[in-house]
Amino acid sequence: MYKPFTKATFLLLFSAASLTACKKDNDKEKSRKDLLTEKEWKYVEYGRDTDNDGILDKEEVKIEACEVDDTFKFNTDGTLVSHDNTARCTSGDEAETYNWAFQKNETEIVLSSGRLIKIKTLTESTFECTSEMLDGSSTTKIITIFKH
């Protein structure tokens, strides 16, 4: 009787499949700095968290049409360049540069303008953060979501 696969053949194929499915030892998870500085970020949405639930509700989104194409590039040298691209909101400078640094185990970013940004999510494609803004006599939480 003809057997197309013997035990030895099966074990050889199984071993080869197992070895190719293993993750390489040199595949390392990207650092938070790598994730932040790899590409430019664009607004998806931002707004004031008026009900203070940590979620940006539809009625809280305040992004303007002229801001949709704005980009933000965190550089490895500690600079952040924000570009007010084609759809300009103001007649001011097209680009502004700030210094930035991680703090608190890379869960926060502090800008040279004094703004403190708390990182909620940072992946290869999404950067969600919160910051606070003085709104008259009270403080309002701002939620911002960026994508590549």
Automatic annotation (TrEMBL):
Q: Which residues form the Lipocalin-like domain?
A: 39-128
- Which keywords annotate this record? Signal
Query: Which Pfam families does its entry note?
Result: Lipocalin_4
Residues spanning the signal sequence: 1-23
Tell me what this protein is called: Lipocalin-like domain-containing protein
Q: Which organism is it from?
A: Niastella caeni
